Amino acid sequence: MVDLFAKIYKDKGPLGKWASQAEGYFVFPKLEGEISNRMKFQGKEVITWSVNDYLGLANHPEVRKVDAEAGKKYGSAYPMGARMMSGHTELHEQLQNELAEFVKKDAAYLLNFGYQGMVSTIDALVGKDDVIVYDVDAHACIIDGVRLHLGKRFTYKHNDVESIEKNLKRAEKIAEQTGGGILLISEGVFGMRGEQGRLKEIVALKEKYNFRLFVDDAHGFGTLGKTGAGAGEEQGVQDDIDVYFATFAKSMASTGAFIAADQEIIDYLKYNLRSQMFAKSLQMQLVVGALKRLDMLRSMPELKDKLWENVNALQSGLKERGFDIGTTQSCVTPVYLKGTVPEAMALVRDLRENHGVFCSIVVYPVIPKGLILLRMIPTALHTMEDIDITLKAFSAIRERLESGLYKRMSSGVSETLGA
């Protein structure tokens, strides 16, 4: 027998091993000031491309006013207790009804947090005789939900319809033996690559296979579709999504989430979601704030229009300069470069210190070795000046990366980075 912590002392994990070099700057950075297109990082103003405030609602004066008034009226504790016991109110019901109408579903149910809500929903929907089929690039909350499943589960190649069908065939064979059903899980928008899930093609497979479709649309809600109802609306298949999930942490610039489906399914889930049955209800300040935000999504389409004006300007500008932004079909804007983790650190430091551009850096094990992913989230608050400065900065850092400057720096060769 060994000490339980022995493995922790020995191995900090693929990301943790970089902690001494990365923490406080590359990971766990401290952005300061009001959430906006420009914030402060280590005392300097930077253009921020790492905040998921798609529609610019986080510090909208109307939103701030409602949040403040709700906080004054209700405090941060009310209602106390879980929904089933003492945490249910008419405003919770009102928000649920308005959300259901917005995403074109019979009913909706509020979740206190998106991550644990997703985990718990998967757990509630399937039993040991059922089979889960899900995208290999699914978000961590989906993966963790699937881990709770005691039955069979299969991953399909990312957004690969042929692989989806192959795994549905495998799932059907298992389900026929166990007497269970099949749950297929996709994302509306994949948060790293920015691609939309192949929802239209997946729905078409319902003609051949008996399965239910569960969609995590955290990045699509509020940004895609004519009304902002998400990827399903964008692809014309919203009615065919059996269980729809979205979070308030992106377009709504808040905390919380919801699921939407037929009334009977929601009635079942609200009595079987362990993360909601045994945890505190979404606090009233957040409920009132979400009602205001949802009203703005419906009544101010110019916010989404401005968002997409910025998205198109940024993405087209990157492509014109020869950058690889993958096959994004959303606001999420990935830029792929070739390099090592140390090179990525030098590159990002150059971006932040000399160009005033702050974006997220993604390296192995999230993406394959030898690649650097710079992930940008355009918002309605960004300006054409922000975009122009960022495009020039990206051209400069690519030139330095390809020249080997960052590699030499990461190898200990003494070189300086001029602006």
UniProtKB/TrEMBL annotation:
<dbReference type="InterPro" id="IPR004839">
    <property type="entry name" value="Aminotransferase_I/II_large"/>
</dbReference>
<dbReference type="InterPro" id="IPR050087">
    <property type="entry name" value="AON_synthase_class-II"/>
</dbReference>
<protein>
    <submittedName>
        <fullName>Aminotransferase class I/II-fold pyridoxal phosphate-dependent enzyme</fullName>
    </submittedName>
</protein>
<keyword id="KW-0032">Aminotransferase</keyword>
<dbReference type="GO" id="GO:0008483">
    <property type="term" value="F:transaminase activity"/>
</dbReference>
<keyword id="KW-0808">Transferase</keyword>
<feature type="domain" description="Aminotransferase class I/classII large">
    <location>
        <begin position="45"/>
        <end position="393"/>
    </location>
</feature>
<dbReference type="GO" id="GO:0030170">
    <property type="term" value="F:pyridoxal phosphate binding"/>
</dbReference>
<dbReference type="Pfam" id="PF00155">
    <property type="entry name" value="Aminotran_1_2"/>
</dbReference>
<dbReference type="InterPro" id="IPR015422">
    <property type="entry name" value="PyrdxlP-dep_Trfase_small"/>
</dbReference>
<dbReference type="InterPro" id="IPR015424">
    <property type="entry name" value="PyrdxlP-dep_Trfase"/>
</dbReference>
<dbReference type="InterPro" id="IPR015421">
    <property type="entry name" value="PyrdxlP-dep_Trfase_major"/>
</dbReference>
